[in-house]
Amino acid sequence: MKQHVARKRFGQNFLHDQNVLSSITESIDPAPGDSMVEIGPGLAAMTDQLLRTLKHMHVVELDRDLVARLEKAYPPNKLTVHSGDALKFDFSTIPVAEGQKLRIVGNLPYNISSPLLFHLATFAPLVQDQHFMLQKEVVERMVAEPGSKVYGRLSVMLQWRYDMSLLFVVPPEAFDPPPRVDSAIIRMIPVAKPLECDGEKLEAVVLKAFSQRRKVIRNCLAGMFTEEQIIAAGINPTDRPEAVGLAQYVALTNLLK
């Protein structure tokens, strides 16, 4: 089969290190009957590993050349290939067995990682777990605690939906071509009962709060909340946005009419 050249516009960096692939597979721990979908299978290095255990899986791939390659390499009773953009893909269309939920995996393109994570969050109730390879810096932001310099909108919004843990770091030389940054594997397990609030309102509050993260939260949220409301949510008005925890942002959001 003709060699595929990685395409920069698709953010393609193909994982080839067998030790790393084995470690990821062990972390995912697939079972034969799992309803598994992989985002961006690329040259199918991870797909091949997973299909050693899985009876069948789904993949979502944007690059049409890779779609043709996958369809030629695997029979449809083993692999269902969805040709399209994961940012627009409706993950609720993936069939699951009764009593099961989706398991989602992938080496996510770093250039669209944040919007893709927010898109996937809308399907969280349908998902058992997610295991992704992402830029290490992004993973650190996702799991950051209040008070951290990298704690921000991504941290708050994803922690509202998921319990997350950084599993291990992957060096650039594990890829072809090697990216200029370290990567990391993250496990994301949807929270069974997220703190009750309107997600769109929470997003608006958090976006406004972190748009001027060097200012105190009273000034960041001026025009949206009074100082009395900020205090009522259990927040010190002179704290900076990164000092405010998820539960406090939720409490603040619930004060919006």
TrEMBL record:
| Ranges of residues in domain Ribosomal RNA adenine methylase transferase N-terminal | 20-192
CC per GO annotation? cytosol
Looking at the Swiss-Prot or TrEMBL record, what is one Pfam family this protein matches? RrnaAD
Keywords carried by this UniProt record: Cytoplasm, Methyltransferase, RNA-binding, rRNA processing, S-adenosyl-L-methionine, Transferase
Which EC number applies? 2.1.1.182
The catalytic activity, as recorded, is: adenosine(1518)/adenosine(1519) in 16S rRNA + 4 S-adenosyl-L-methionine = N(6)-dimethyladenosine(1518)/N(6)-dimethyladenosine(1519) in 16S rRNA + 4 S-adenosyl-L-homocysteine + 4 H(+)
Q: Tell me the compartments it is located in.
A: Cytoplasm
> Residues that bind S-adenosyl-L-methionine, according to the entry?
13, 15, 40, 61, 85, 107
Among InterPro entries, the record links this protein to: KsgA/Erm, rRNA_Ade_diMease-like_C, rRNA_Ade_Mease_Trfase_CS, rRNA_Ade_methylase_Trfase_N, rRNA_adenine_dimethylase, SAM-dependent_MTases_sf
| UniProt-listed SUPFAM superfamilies | S-adenosyl-L-methionine-dependent methyltransferases
For this UniProt entry, the molecular function terms from Gene Ontology, in alphabetical order, are: 16S rRNA (adenine(1518)-N(6)/adenine(1519)-N(6))-dimethyltransferase activity; RNA binding
Q: What exactly does this protein do?
A: Specifically dimethylates two adjacent adenosines (A1518 and A1519) in the loop of a conserved hairpin near the 3'-end of 16S rRNA in the 30S particle. May play a critical role in biogenesis of 30S subunits.
Regarding protein family, the annotation reads: Belongs to the class I-like SAM-binding methyltransferase superfamily. rRNA adenine N(6)-methyltransferase family. RsmA subfamily.
Mind telling me which PANTHER family this protein's record contains?
A: DIMETHYLADENOSINE TRANSFERASE (PTHR11727), DIMETHYLADENOSINE TRANSFERASE-RELATED (PTHR11727:SF7)
Spell out the protein name for this chain.
Ribosomal RNA small subunit methyltransferase A
Naturally occurring in which organism (per UniProt): Duganella flavida
